[in-house]
From TrEMBL, chain A:
One of its GO terms (biological process) is anaerobic respiration. [4Fe-4S] cluster 2 binds at residues 232, 235, 260, 266. Belongs to the [NiFe]/[NiFeSe] hydrogenase small subunit family. One of its GO terms (molecular function) is electron transfer activity. Its cofactor is [3Fe-4S] cluster; [4Fe-4S] cluster. The chain crosses the membrane at residues 21-39. This is Uptake hydrogenase small subunit. The keyword Signal applies. Residues 62-207 form the NADH:ubiquinone oxidoreductase-like 20kDa subunit domain.
From TrEMBL, chain B:
Its main location: membrane. PANTHER family: NI/FE-HYDROGENASE 1 B-TYPE CYTOCHROME SUBUNIT (PTHR30485), NI_FE-HYDROGENASE 1 B-TYPE CYTOCHROME SUBUNIT-RELATED (PTHR30485:SF0). It is a multi-pass membrane protein. It is found in: Cell membrane. Gene3D superfamilies: Transmembrane di-heme cytochromes, Chain C. It holds the Pfam family Ni_hydr_CYTB. One of its GO terms (biological process) is respiratory electron transport chain. It comes from Albidovulum denitrificans. GO terms for molecular function: electron transfer activity; heme binding; iron ion binding. One of its GO terms (cellular component) is plasma membrane. This is Probable Ni/Fe-hydrogenase B-type cytochrome subunit. The keyword Lipoprotein does not apply.
Length: 361, 246
């Protein structure tokens, strides 16, 4: 493996100066929340470690993850990471196509068996033997299994790979299945979102390439450093939430004042992501800042959690659309009615008994 | 009826009353900790239902001052969390008392489903509530049907609400907090906080329905059964209205 270039060599070949390289190392350290002591460590790792090849495969998806990824705010991070991985296999970004591309994939799998990272964008549909998603003439699920076999670790990009996203929403006709339910014997890191934030994506991949291990994961297998808090916990509109000042309609005075979007169905309180801190497009904005509630795109099954514009989820198990309050009120109404009827009969019975006792008396 | 006695001193005391007081006894059923817990718990549930409903559907926006001077929704949430903690620790205290109190204190926490006799009595109670049995039986503690309902509606319902509630609280307390360490696993089961919110919300209605039935039945039995019900949870003593056994 000595013939493989180090990260540093790749960067220098890209025309990046030593000074810029050091800047990149400090930026990465701070983005990952590691502190200044880690800057020389990152630099050292980048200089001495052979780069880790990444294979990026695409299943049922919309390519929004790739679109987000190539918009990573720090151009250096983008260039470096992108050039490091596109060299191997990414059928959307690579220059090669057709048989050439497939050959490149095979080549990488064989050459770096057990050492490459498999990044999966989208998910495999399992119905009809996976015929709903064909890559290179074969069902995607076969490519996924084949590529996963020799992978060191797997990154599930976006809501599709992590949870299934829209194609897995009820009734899920193609049986689109998240990666971790198909590949069960490899370490999998989920980076959910539709799409995930670019800096989160490059941050995760840089961490893995640099430290040669997975970042700390939470219970659902998401990197804790980016998915440890809810949008709500760091939302700049939070003071209006605590004050009880809400937007009541999209065009009202409160909306203009930038009040809390909770009543408009904002899913910030139930969504784990870094949008309210990292934000999007070089930290320009994020949905809540532009006046629309969070839709909870980085949460499991977010398409099936009712309307984007209501805090109370519709529960479709009851045949008709109803939320917890409607179900509860109906049940309470039925029980209340039953209680009233029962009480009436009880009273009648008691009266009857009393009369009888009097007669018998 | 007992024959009239000639030694009745009080003019307002009917002879049959005197005869009955000389026979009928009361049993001390609910000890003080159980009674105090019952009413504290009832108050906590009332606060939790109202504040919880408002958390799901907030009251209209209020403009008292700038956001820094106003904490309306914050207080609603505080009331919910405070009442939730009182309910939780009250319930833990109640579990403690199940071990150290009298045997009636244990009825809430189990259903003797292995006893055929128990199910026969449940069936009898069902018949009583369907107006098929002429007269109810006497019970010192909960009647078998009540015990069953208490266990499924209340004990399981409140346990569910405590666990899901603390898991939701852990979201605000965040990773590394005690609640997150103890109850974060719930998120590992449910996976979507919105889903957990919905389940917790449905749980409220479960408890509301329990309350409706509980209050109705307590009043009905107080009037129609052969023993005291409502006052028993105040004084702790169960009094009986007749001397016949069973």
């Amino acid at each position: 493996m000595s013939q493989i270039e180090t990260f540093y060599e790749v960067m220098r070949r890209q025309g990046i100066t030593r000074r810029s390289f050091m800047k990149y190392c400090s930026l990465t350290a701070s983005a990952l929340g590691l502190g200044p002591a880690f800057v020389p460590k990152i630099a050292h790792a980048m200089e001495t470690k052979p780069r880790t090849p990444v294979i990026w495969v695409h299943g049922l998806e919309c390519t929004c993850c790739s679109e987000s990824f190539i918009r990573s705010a720090h151009p250096l991070a983008k260039d470096v990471v992108l050039s490091m991985i596109s060299l191997d296999y990414d059928d959307t970004l690579m220059a090669a196509a057709g048989h050439q591309a497939e050959a490149a994939l095979e080549d990488t799998i064989e050459k770096y068996r057990g050492n490459y990272i498999l990044a999966v964008e989208g998910n495999p549909p399992l119905n009809e033997d996976g015929m709903f998603c064909i890559v290179g003439g074969k069902p995607f699920v076969e490519q996924l299994r084949h590529a996963a076999e020799g992978a060191k670790a797997i990154i599930s990009w976006g809501a599709c790979a992590s949870y299934g996203c829209v194609q897995a929403a009820s009734p899920n006709p193609t049986r689109a299945t998240p990666v971790h339910k198909v590949i069960t014997d490899k370490p999998i890191i989920k980076v959910p979102g539709c799409p995930p934030i670019a800096e989160v994506m490059t941050g995760v991949i840089t961490y893995m390439l640099t430290f040669d291990r997975l970042p700390e994961l939470d219970r659902q297998g998401r990197p804790a450093m980016f998915y440890g808090q809810r949008i709500h916990d760091k939302c700049y509109r939070r003071p209006h939430f605590d004050a009880g000042q809400f937007v009541e309609a999209w065009d009202d005075e409160n909306a203009r004042k930038g009040y809390c979007l909770y009543k408009m169905g904002c899913k910030g309180p139930t969504t784990y992501n870094a949008c309210s801190t990292v934000r999007w497009n070089e930290g320009t904005s994020f949905p809540i800042q532009s006046g629309h509630g969070c839709i909870g795109c980085s949460e499991d099954g977010f398409w099936d959690q009712g309307s984007f514009y209501n805090r109370l989820t519709n529960i479709n198990q009851f045949g008709v659309e109803a939320n917890a309050d409607k179900v509860g009120l109906t049940a309470a109404g039925v029980v209340g009615g039953a209680v009233a009827v029962h009480a009436a009969i009880s009273a009648l019975k008691r009266a009857q008994k009393k009369t009888q006792e009097k007669v018998e008396g | 009826m007992a024959s009239p006695s000639t030694t009745v001193p009080a003019h307002d005391l009917a002879p049959e009353d005197l005869a009955s007081v000389s026979h009928q006894t009361s049993v001390y059923v609910y000890e003080a900790p159980v009674r105090i817990w019952h009413w504290v718990n009832a108050a906590a549930i009332m606060v939790l239902c109202v504040s919880g409903y408002f958390i799901g559907s907030p009251p209209p926006s209020m403009q008292i001052g700038e956001a820094v001077q106003q904490f309306v929704f914050g207080y609603i949430r505080f009331a919910h969390f405070a009442a939730g903690m009182i309910l939780t620790f009250g319930f833990l205290g109640r579990i403690y008392w199940a071990f150290f109190g009298n045997h009636h204190a244990r009825q809430l926490f189990y259903v003797p489903f292995w006893r055929v006799e128990y199910w026969r009595e449940v069936l009898f109670e069902v018949r009583w509530y369907l107006f098929l049995a002429k007269e109810p039986k006497k019970y010192v503690g909960h009647n078998p049907l009540a015990q069953l309902a208490m266990f499924f509606f209340f004990t399981l319902g409140v346990s569910f609400m405590i666990v899901t509630g603390l898991a939701l609280y852990a979201e605000g307390a965040q990773e590394g907090s005690l609640t997150a360490d103890l109850f974060g696993w719930v998120h590992g089961l449910i996976w979507n906080s919105q889903r957990l919110h919905t389940l917790h919300h449905l749980g409220m209605w479960w408890i509301v329905i329990f309350m409706m039935i509980h209050i109705y039945v307590a009043i009905r039995e107080d009037i129609m059964s052969r023993q005291s019900i409502v006052s028993t949870m105040i004084s702790g003593t169960r009094t009986f209205k007749d001397d016949r056994p069973d």
